[in-house]
From TrEMBL:
The keyword Amino-acid biosynthesis does not apply. Signal peptide: none annotated. This is FadR family transcriptional regulator. Residues 9-77 form the HTH gntR-type domain. It comes from Actinomadura darangshiensis.
Length: 231
């Protein structure tokens, strides 16, 4: 089927999208060899260099693969998902399981590595969480809770860990808002217990890694149990 000429600029993006649409639509099934660059350039109304860049983009997305001396072949009909997209599609319970694994060790590291600046940030975040705890609005409470956990992550002084937690945060926020909407956990000292969070900050202050890890493990597992019940 002729592809038809493209509108001017940005030609590479348009060419890549047109080829992607053809692949997704079944014009070129998996295993099929694509037409040569000259043929594609003629059908798309662009230069060969534009086609070459478009094919490179499709290869980067995991849709096609160039085989030395043989040409370019379709290897998938859907592009590879990037990490943020994968997280957005995941259930909050699945993300929470990974969060629990990471945060236990993060709390232990925070107790070992915290600085005076970290303690100030933790105290500020704990106070903000306590204040939000007594409010009527759900979202400020969730945001304050996540901010406290983010301060714990920061006190671990591991930038990779901090980046991972930042990727999880949007999914966690949405899931926790849904959870609190269904069951107001602020009325009990369990999953989001004020005492547990105060004890966590104190364990980090006194540099007790074992206590910090155990406190956050219990707190997060209680929340995870509530999330799993709502699956």
């Amino acid at each position: 089927m002729p592809l038809g000429p493209l509108r001017p600029s940005p030609l590479v993006e348009q060419a890549a999208q047109r080829l992607r649409d053809q692949i997704a639509g079944g014009s070129w099934p998996v295993g099929t060899k694509l037409p040569g660059e000259t043929t594609l350039a003629t059908e798309l109304g662009v230069g060969r260099s534009t086609v070459r860049e478009a094919l490179r983009a499709l290869a980067g997305a995991g849709l096609v693969q160039a085989r030395q001396g043989a040409g370019v072949f379709v290897i998938a009909t859907e592009p590879d998902e990037d990490w943020p997209a994968r997280l957005r599609r995941a259930s909050v319970a699945d993300v929470y399981e990974i969060r629990a694994m990471l945060e236990v060790r993060a709390a232990e590291l925070a107790a070992e590595r915290r600085t005076g600046t970290d303690l100030t940030a933790l105290d500020t975040a704990l106070s903000a969480r306590d204040e939000a705890f007594t409010g009527a609005a759900i979202e400020p409470f969730i945001d304050a809770d996540i901010a406290l956990h983010t301060a714990v992550i920061a006190a671990a002084h591991n930038p990779v860990l901090a980046d991972l937690f930042a990727e999880f945060t949007p999914v966690l926020r949405d899931g926790l808002i849904d959870l609190v909407t269904l069951v107001d956990v602020r009325k009990s000292d369990t999953a989001h217990g004020r005492a547990a969070h105060a004890a966590l900050v104190e364990a980090i202050r006194t540099q007790d890694p074992a206590a910090a890890g155990e406190i956050i493990k219990t707190e997060l597992h209680q929340t995870l149990a509530a999330l799993l019940q709502g699956r």
